[in-house]
């Protein structure tokens, strides 16, 4: 995973990722503790070192009561104790340092776990099928990458050390107690079993409220993301308070779940406390009796009481470890849910499986044959057939909602048709690697987004090795040279992440230049001139005509000037092709087209003067 710049590298790393996803079959229920341990894969050495330090520290801790026992014996016998005191002090210090070192290593492990998970999540998300992302709340996905991984980090850093310490101390202390006085050990053990059973019951409840809390945080993030993304509409609608209230409800839901788990947790604390103090009192009473009748030494009672606290006190730690683990399990479920999202088949195919069939040079480049499609229940495309020749400008027109963008999505293989075939250069695209397929096409989305980086980065996005000459040429075609001159750093100007610094029309022209630069065989343009002024639109239409001499252009058009410039027009009426032809032919034969041109297609000033 060193080279992550080029697309082939991504295609190569992706299958490894797919192999690394949890072995459990998709949807086979909630993760278990073993799945948490699997997170530590790759940190084996650090975890081993951490445990070695912690185990040593714990053992040193267990020696202390024995030394104390010896100390009391020596005091009662009137012997010197200086060396024992020094030994005890050294033990304290050594224990503290070993445990601190172990904790540090576990913290580092936690950070590594987060890093690995986030990298996997990010890579996965970028390969997940568009269709899957369309149906999910992006904000919720973000909260899984951000929040849930953090929960897992805290669990790794916080719970394992406690579990190990508690178990070791518990077993060690129990052994020593058994050795000192088996009868009294039984007394302590019974109280503990009762406490443990009660705690386990509460844990289950805590896990479910944690899952609810995390889900609410996911909803909150998703809603907030949407609202901030559309803040202008929110403000214009004076809906700030309403939105704050709505998102506040998610916050409240997280609160309710949190309080519920706090309430459950608060039961555990006192229960443990009662068990601890009860057993302590019990040990003290029985111990006092046994000391008075001579069956136990005072030093043994002191050591025993110390050991009893060793056994019982960590119960609180055990409890917090368990609640961390419960939360970790809830978060791991949400993270694995993302890691299981279906990726495009390209991500699972070796990089060299992308070979395309040889170019045939046939006159028809793109051929839709009886294509039908529905998003869920409602049919959107019904038996759509038309073709795009190797060169020339084909316009796709229709009312909004007719399915034009859907056709573009199918041609790009973002979605698969339910019926019919789409042939590219004579081959059904169904069996073709989507990334290789997309390399032959350029796409200008309806809402042309700018991605991060400089204007230049945005232009060469699909053609990283395009030279200065080609960039200038593309800029000239979309009439953007003037903009570049106006920008403070020219092509090196950072264009804001969401393109706020550029107008809609400028953004659109950047997107077109980007698509042109890749010199694709087929250019897909989805309403590319919707935000352009008539002059720019006219010039762009001329440029498109120019380009269409060498390559195929499929333009979803809603402006008359583009439509009239087309070699052929495909008219889409509610998911069906109503007719195909030139502007003049269609005016004559298709009444729907006539209505469309008068009512729907925007006529710009230049059109009217030309008409
Ligand atoms: P056009 O681009 O012609 O305006 P679209 O292809 O975008 O139309 O949409 C066609 C129909 O499909 C519309 O009714 C739209 O509501 C619906 N649609 C578009 N995208 C989705 C989607 N991701 N999920 C569900 N329905 C969708
Ligand atoms: Mg559309």
Automatic annotation (TrEMBL):
Q: Where are the transmembrane segments?
A: 47-68, 80-98, 160-180, 186-206, 267-289, 301-325
- Quote the CDD domains the UniProt record gives: ABC_6TM_LmrA_like
Q: Which residues form a coiled coil?
A: none
Q: Tell me where it resides.
A: Cell membrane
Instruction: Tell me where in this chain the ABC transmembrane type-1 domain is found.
Output: 49-327
Q: Which domain of life is it from?
A: Bacteria
Annotated membrane topology: Multi-pass membrane protein
The family database entries (Pfam families) matched by this protein are listed as: ABC_membrane, ABC_tran
Gene Ontology MF terms: ATP binding
Instruction: Please classify the protein's predominant subcellular localization into one broad category.
Output: membrane
* Keywords, sorted A to Z: ATP-binding, Membrane, Nucleotide-binding, Transmembrane, Transmembrane helix
Name used for this protein in its record:
ABC transporter ATP-binding protein
Species for this entry: Streptomyces thermoalcalitolerans
């Amino acid at each position: 995973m060193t080279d992550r710049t080029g697309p082939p590298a991504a295609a190569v790393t992706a299958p490894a990722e797919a192999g690394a996803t949890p072995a459990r079959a998709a949807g086979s229920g909630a993760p278990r503790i073993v799945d948490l341990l699997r997170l530590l894969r790759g940190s084996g050495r650090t975890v081993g070192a951490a445990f070695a330090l912690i185990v040593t520290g714990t053992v040193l801790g267990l020696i202390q009561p024995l030394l104390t026992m010896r100390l009391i014996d020596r005091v009662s016998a009137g012997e010197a104790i200086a060396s024992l005191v020094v030994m005890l002090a050294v033990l304290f210090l050594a224990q503290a340092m070993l445990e601190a070192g172990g904790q540090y290593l576990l913290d580092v492990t936690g950070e590594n776990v987060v890093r690995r998970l986030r990298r996997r999540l990010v890579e996965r998300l970028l390969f997940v099928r568009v269709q899957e992302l369309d149906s999910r709340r992006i904000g919720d996905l973000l909260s899984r990458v951000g929040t849930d991984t953090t929960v897992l980090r805290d669990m790794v850093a916080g719970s394992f050390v406690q579990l190990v310490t508690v178990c070791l101390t518990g077993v060690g202390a129990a052994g020593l107690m058994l050795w000192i006085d088996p009868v009294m050990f039984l007394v302590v053990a019974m109280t503990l079993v009762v406490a443990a059973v009660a705690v386990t019951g509460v844990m289950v409840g805590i896990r479910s409220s944690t899952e609810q809390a995390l889900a609410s945080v996911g909803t909150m993030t998703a809603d907030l993301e949407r609202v901030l993304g559309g803040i202008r509409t929110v403000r214009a609608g004076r809906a700030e308070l309403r939105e704050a209230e709505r998102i506040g409800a998610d916050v409240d839901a997280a609160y309710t779940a949190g309080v519920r788990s706090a309430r459950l947790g608060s039961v555990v604390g006192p229960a443990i406390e009662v068990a601890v103090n009860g057993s302590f009192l019990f040990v003290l009473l029985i111990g006092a009796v046994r000391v008075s009748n001579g069956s136990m030494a005072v030093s043994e009672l002191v050591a025993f009481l110390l050991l009893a606290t060793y056994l019982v006190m960590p119960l609180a730690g055990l409890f917090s470890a368990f609640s961390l683990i419960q939360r970790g399990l809830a978060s791991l479920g949400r993270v694995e849910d993302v890691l299981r999202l279906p990726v495009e088949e390209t991500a699972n195919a070796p990089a060299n499986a992308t070979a395309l069939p040889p170019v045939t040079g046939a006159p028809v480049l793109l051929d839709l044959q009886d294509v039908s499609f529905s998003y869920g229940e409602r049919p959107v495309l019904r038996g759509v057939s038309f073709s795009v020749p190797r060169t020339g400008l084909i316009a796709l027109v229709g009312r909004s909602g007719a399915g034009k963008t859907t056709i573009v999505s199918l041609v790009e293989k973002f979605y698969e048709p339910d019926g019919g075939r789409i042939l590219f250069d004579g081959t059904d695209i169904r069996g073709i690697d989507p990334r290789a397929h997309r390399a032959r096409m350029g796409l200008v989305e309806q809402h042309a987004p700018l991605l991060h980086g400089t204007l230049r980065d945005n232009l060469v996005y699909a053609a990283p090795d395009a030279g200065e000459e080609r960039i200038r040429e593309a800029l000239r075609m979309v009439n953007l040279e003037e903009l570049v001159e106006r920008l403070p750093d020219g092509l090196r100007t950072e264009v804001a992440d969401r393109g706020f610094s550029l107008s809609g029309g400028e953004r659109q022209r950047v997107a077109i230049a980007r698509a042109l630069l890749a010199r694709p065989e087929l250019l897909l343009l989805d309403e590319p001139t919707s935000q352009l002024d008539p002059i720019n639109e006219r010039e762009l239409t001329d440029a498109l005509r120019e380009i269409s001499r060498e390559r195929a252009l499929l333009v979803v058009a809603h402006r008359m000037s583009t439509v009239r410039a087309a070699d052929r027009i495909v008219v889409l009426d509610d998911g069906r092709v109503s007719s195909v032809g030139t502007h003049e032919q269609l005016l004559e034969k298709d009444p729907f087209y006539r209505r469309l041109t008068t009512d729907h297609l925007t006529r710009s000033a230049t059109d009217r003067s030309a008409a």
